Amino acid sequence: MMDRLLDLVKKDLQVKTTMAAFRDFVLEQDEELLSNIEEPVKSNAKAAHFRQEGNHLYLAKRYEKALEKYNESISYAETGSDQLAMGYANRSAIYFEQGEYEFALLNIRLARDHNYPEKLREKLDMREKNCRLKIDEGLAKDNVPCP
User: Fold this and answer.
1) What is 44-136's CATH number?
2) Which residue in 41, 69, 107, 115 is a FRET match for 90, CA 20 to 30 A apart?
């Protein structure tokens, strides 16, 4: 019985040692990979391009791909631009369609905080109202985004 227990402890230590070595390797690789990543040069033209691609994917109900394009749009959008605000607003539409109402509300707030165009506010207000209704109906996934 003791021999078997000793074997199990040895195997557990081997697994832990292997896992620690793997973790260290991954951390080393991540540092190297992260050091080679360049920040995208801000460009409202590129932001608009990716947002339009996202819009086409959204209309085709390809929400995951549309979300990727909206994320790219946001990453390229210049600070304080309407492109940034519209990227957040479009991303809120994706989250609404996916039933991620809390994330939709967060993105609605981000859109407003980043100068979302007044002429489009009614659309955003309606989406916010619909999100709150869905949450009140108990349809939330209880995901709480970090602001």
Assistant:
1) 1.25.40.10
2) 41
Q: What share of the chain is helix, strand, coil (3-state, %, to 5)?
A: 75, 0, 25
CA distance 101 to 106: 9
C-alpha to C-alpha distance for 147 and 46, rounded to whole angstroms:
26
pLDDT digits (tens, 9 = 90+) for 18-53: 555 555 665 666 666 656 666 668 999 999 999 999
Cβ count within 10 A of residue 58: 20
Stated length of the chain: 147
Centre a 10 Å sphere on the Cβ of residue 94 and count the other Cβ atoms it contains: 24
Q: How many CB atoms lie within 10 A of CB 62?
A: 14
Two tokens, residue 2: 């003791």
